[in-house]
Amino acid sequence: MVRSVGFGVTNKCFEPIAKEIMLRPLKKLIVKSGYHSKPDFMIVGAQKAGTTGLFDILIQHSRLRCAGTKEIHYFSDNDWCGPQNHWEYHCYFPLPLQLARGTKLFEASASYLNHPRVARRLHSYKPDLKLIILLRDPAERAFSAWTMTHHLFRTGRMRPKHDPRTFTEVVNDELENWSKRTYENYESAYVQRGLYHDQLQAYLKYFSWDQIHLVESADLIHKFDETIRGILSFIGVNYEPLSLALTNRAEIRENEKYQADILRLREFYRPYNEKLFELIGRKLPSFRDI
Q: Which of 27, 169, 187, 260 is most buried, with most CB under 10 Å away?
């Protein structure tokens, strides 16, 4: 499998593009020799829960540096991920000599939370890794994910992942068949991705609560400064005022059209949300049950 390794450029993350292009061959050799950086923390999901927004917020901080692109998906790629390919992953990050003292590195891939093997892979890769998990009302998350795959993936490079079904068809199918499917044979998993209790339990087999920071997605908007202070404290960097980054704002709004289906999902998720609240020791106010 041939891949373009680690040289996409995200604003404020790497040096100017021209300099990075000149460093490509040399950087490969340096990284393969064992001189590389590893991320200190990761934003691992959930999909459509604000991972892009948080990524864009955190890269404003003077002591936070990100991978050269968001959504690397390395640890959720069964064909790519493995010790023999770690050097390719490390090419996405600045070299140690490019980092100011006290800088923390991170990446964000929303596929990591729901993938059944990622928690074990991450722990094997770096046992002291810190994890940030954003949780959004699962019915709203499912509807947002369908809006993306149904409307936004009609054309362009994401067209192979376009979902032609209506949201009603999606809900009917998933509520009947979700328990029979695995991540590998049904990547969209609109319903399964909202079963946060099960996903957290999988991570808690390998990581302690001290390594996991939960963020209620709605708090990034309604309690922005308090939420960011908590995240920066968890990461271990000093507070700096950062700006809210509003991303992925849908211009297509069909909530009213599919209100009955959203309510069906809320009813389905109710007992799973209760299990989640018991596990984390608190309720999440933005999770609606009606």
A: 27
H or E segment to which residue 146 belongs:
helix 138-147
Is the Cα torsion angle 59, 153, 248, 171 positive or negative in sign?
negative
Other Cβ atoms within 10 Å of 213 Cβ, number: 18
Q: Are 24 and 7 in contact (CB under 8 A)?
A: yes
- Pairing label, strands 104-108, 41-45: parallel
Which ranges of 33-75 does DSSP label H, i.e. alpha helix?
Answer: 51-58
Q: Is-contact 105 66, C-beta < 8 A?
A: yes
pLDDT digits (tens, 9 = 90+) for 223-233: 999 999 999 99
**Which structure tokens are listed for 268?**
């389905």
- Cα separation of 83 and 90, whole Å? 11
Torsion angle (degrees, nearest 10) of CA 169, 172, 178, 184: -10
Q: Which two tokens stand for residue 122?
A: 């991450």
The residue to which tokens 């979700």 are assigned: 178
| Helices and strands in the chain: count of H runs, count of E runs | 10, 5
Q: Has residue 1 got a pLDDT over 60?
A: no
